[in-house]
Amino acid sequence: MTDFAATRGMFDLPDGVIYLDGNSLGPLPRSAPGRMDGVMVEEWGKLLITGWNKAGWMARSVALGDRIARLIGAEPGHVVVGDTLSIKVYQALAAALEMNPDRKVILSDTGNFPSDLYIAEGLIGSLKQGHELRTVAPEDVEAAITDEVAVLMITEVDYGTGRLHDMKALTEKAHAHGVVTVWDLAHTAGATEVKLAACNADFAVGCTYKYLNGGPGSPAFIYVAPRHADTARPALAGWLGHDAPFAFEQTYRPHAGIERMRVGTPPVLAMAALDAALDIWDGVDMAALRRRSVELTSLFIDEVEAACPMLTLASPRAADRRGSQVSFRFADGYAAMQALIARGVIGDFRAPDIMRFGFAPLYIDEGDVRQAVAILSDVMGNRLWDRPEYKTRAAVT
User: Where is pyridoxal 5'-phosphate annotated to bind (predicted)?
Assistant: First the structure.
């Protein structure tokens, strides 16, 4: 049984703050500064360039990938860490399209994170082969899967509403129509019980700075199913994806398996922080995490709707249809969120009117939920948000 009281103590959370924004950036693990200091002083400082061999820096991309694999239901040896999520989306989508060369439609939904759609548009523009990005409402995705679709590219949890797609059902229908699947796990890795292997997913990508708590800008990961691992072509043929990078050959030969999806030099310092964060996950049962998440999000919805009738639920009410995030709509949602943050409850805002609250059971409990709702009720009921200083948009919302 997972001890969530113990995991809570493993994070360095500021006093007086209820942190409901782990769906955007996870908090600092207490062990991360020491881990990074050790890598900087004992490895980089004393070993210098020999650290690539003596400290095993080069192997960490795969080692961290294996640690993440357990959390997303992937087979060992089929996840690798490195680069950014945008790069991993590009790699996965490009490889998936090449598996269906006679089809031209990339199917996604209107709730997908815009960056994924931008990457698809950019790839289409570079290929110049008549591909089309087709987006439909999230609830219409299953019906839109037809024999003309090449790739289904879906973010499992909608970044705005928290709506959870049925990975198993959509993947089954996609495969029945010869469609290759690419799943973005940015809002599910470390938040829900992901089952990539059981759902027979083809590709998946995700970031590590949200629920996995790897730190701002921590590296992304990519999953390639075993059946594709030795044939998927890496469109970004980086030197670390080469079969023999230190042979310095003039032409590219892809590495066997998942390592062909490596591109650039591993961010060793960032990986040290991620490694420390993943230590916390070693004692976490993902099914227990999901049950706890459902309890917390359900309690929050019930309490907010009772205390703040001016807010409209944007997330699915049914627990099995949402991730570990709850969103409410309010016309002045940005100002309301700033007022809430000023009182120690940190969530975030997404245009045009979404107030987002993320629930990470590793460090959030029922007491946090009830206290956060009490403060939210005060902000909303007394219109504390209706001040000029809360209405000036910052660069990051």
Answer: 85-86, 113-116, 155, 184, 187, 209, 239, 265
